Amino acid sequence: MKLHEYESRELFTAYGIPVPRYGLARSGEEALKIAREIGGRVVVKAQVLVAGRGKAGGIKFAHTPEEAAEIASKMIGTAIKGEKVESVLISEYQEVEGELYLSVIIDRSRGMPLVIASPEGGVEIEELARTSPEKLIQLHVDPLIGLRPHHLRNIQNFMGLDEKYSKQLPQVLTSLYKLFVENDCELAEINPLAITSGGLVAIDAKILVDDNSLFRHSQFRRSEVGESFEVEARRMGFSYVELDGDIGIIGNGAGLTMATMDVVKEMGGRPANFLDIGGGASEEIVEKAASLLLRHPRVKVLFVNVLGGITRCDEVAKGLVSAVKAHGAGKKVVVRMMGTREEEGKKILRESGLYPYDSMEEAAQMAAQLVQG
Amino acid sequence: MAILVNSETRIVVQGITGRQGSFHTKSMLQYGSKIVAGVTPGKGGQSVEGVPVYDTVREAMREHPEINASMIMVPAPYAPDAVYEAIDAGVGLIVVITEHIPVHDSMRFIRYARLNGVKIIGPNCPGVITPGECKLGIMPGHIFSRGSVGIVSRSGTLTYEIAHSITKAGLGQSTAIGIGGDPITGMSFIDVLEMFRKDGQTRAVVLIGEIGGDMEERAASYIKETSYEKPVVAYIAGRTAPPGKRMGHAGAIISMGAGDAESKMKALTSAGAHVARTPAETTELLRKLL
Q1: What is the DSSP letter of B228?
Q2: Contact A331, A373 (CB under 8 A)
Q3: In angstroms, how far is CA B75 from the centroid of its own chain?
Q4: For tag attachment on chain A, is the N or C end more exposed, with fewer CB atoms within 10 Å?
């Protein structure tokens, strides 16, 4: 889960990483008040999670509190790259002498945290890694041992900062690493870490928190807003991803569901979504999933691919039949099922006029044909 | 011969008294797996499906020193402690079925296991099966049959799909391992490929990968560098997955321009592996090769 910028700033403040003075405004009046308290020039930053908000007009500079208020009231309520702006961050403007990069990520390949630093911040780090890898230092940290003084010395030497800032760097990195571990981050990035006359300041940040850890970080939990199918499906507890085709896909298990999408594509069809009902789904769960997709305006054909293990084919068939009865008008349904209680499941389907397939390739081909009409 | 589990495997199930734990204990016993003990703190003295339950793994080991594998079916918040307990009690092979374990936790227990010479399969995996000998996991046993194909996979149901078609083709499996769908897993494709290489029963390997990370690319380099002697047939799920979206598995995400299916398929093809475009094609390729 990606944190909002204001949440990142709160975390930085709590861990002693310097940030520009700021406040969160939900209206022009609030923005005016905050900008007055800060005094001087400020930056107005839309609190959205989409990438590239700066280029999309989500970051603007204001010379006076009144200008900040005007920008804020215009920005709030608009959408940036499809995401509604609910609030803006009013941040003190900083004269910057240089920009550094600092992050801690989880390196999947090695199964360890990796600290990355560069004296050339402010740019996309993936881009820098491709074009000038020599400008980056990457150090693995044993998760059982943690960050040690040698890591700090190596990074200090590599960055080659003036003494005044060089002393502050280990403090910032130590805090960032602690924040990364204690908040179950997948990524804790400061970019840029600005060199200012007052010392190092974290101007912008990107923090990703592991969704699986939210049971112990209730402060980050948020209810998903909106009426999109993606949000509705997740509220129902499904793994769901919206795609742009017209064949609705339901599978059990992430790998099988992905493979189902791929095979549909291979047979010339276009998947409308990815919906994984997980293991051991009951009749009710299947009914919910199928109803959701049958109500989806873009879905012309629903393709259900279930491999019974702990999931029982008869439960799937029952759930599917009730969903089709309630919402199936005008939609076609293709089912492939195999495994636990397969015969019982197929019987239920046949009795309701649905014809099950044995092979997912054949079923996918049929789904692709049915879309053609 | 097979790998990891066989008729000598003696199992302790941690979390045996839970709904999932007791259900799968029954199913494993029916398959013929030797479960000698269960552990649930506070439930010592009870029994599940005739299997004695202990409060700690240490007590279970004292009564049943033959235990050499553990299956963990404990909810995510408590699963890491169950793993540490099994490692400290001296269990050499631990299968972590539990899904949704925070990655910082698994990073630490996987590292701890490695330093202690303990093998971990998972987390978020179906387990491992050597058909006819031992099922240490939650897969439907009847779709597997004894044979010569080794399977290693990041997925559950997709493994069953392909295993079933291998069974129908009369080829069967030596051992099938689901290494798990999380970003960090105890065992990698390379670890398992290395074991299959040395296994006399395995004549070909099926590698079932998916988007996210670079485990498939690293497996490809390994196949190339070792001039892997046995044919490898690969299937990669997620060709139609959009970047930046997590496809069900915590580990299945194309991020920072890396981890897409095409690059994995390309790497495997250039390493000499046979890459199938559909699950069914995996079996067709195997049939030609064997």
Answers
A1: -
A2: no
A3: 18
A4: C
pLDDT in tens, B74-100: 999 999 999 999 999 999 999 999 999
Among residues B133, B260, B268, the alpha carbon closest in space to that of B207 is found at: B268
A243 touches chain B (CB under 8 A): yes
Q: What angle do CA A73, A75, A77 make, to 5 degrees?
A: 85
What does the block give as tokens for B11? Answer: 């199992």
Provide the mean pLDDT of chain A. 93
Chain A residues touching residue B19 (CB < 8 angstroms): none
What's the rounded mean pLDDT across residues A155-179? 95
Q: Which two tokens stand for residue B19?
A: 């709904």
Neighbours of A127 (CB within 10 A): 10
The model's pTM is 0.94
Distance CA B275, CA B232 (A): 8
Q: In the 3-class helix/strand/coil scheme, how is A301-329 assigned residue by residue?
A: EEEEEEEECCCCHHHHHHHHHHHHHHHCC
What DSSP designation does B200 have? S
Residue B1: both structure tokens together:
């011969």
Residue A84 has pLDDT above 80, yes or no: yes
Instruction: Give the ipTM of the model, two decimals please.
Output: 0.93
Residues whose CB is less than 8 angstroms from the CB of residue B210 and which lie 6 or more positions away in sequence, other chains included: A254, A255, A258, B154, B155, B181, B236, B237, B238, B247, B249, B251, B252, B261
Q: In a 10 Å sphere around its CB, with 0-12 CB exposed, 13-18 middle and 19+ buried, how is residue A68 labelled?
A: buried
Residue A109 in contact with residue A80, Cβ under 8 Å? no
Q: Using CB atoms, which residue from A212, A255, A310 is nearest to B138?
A: A310
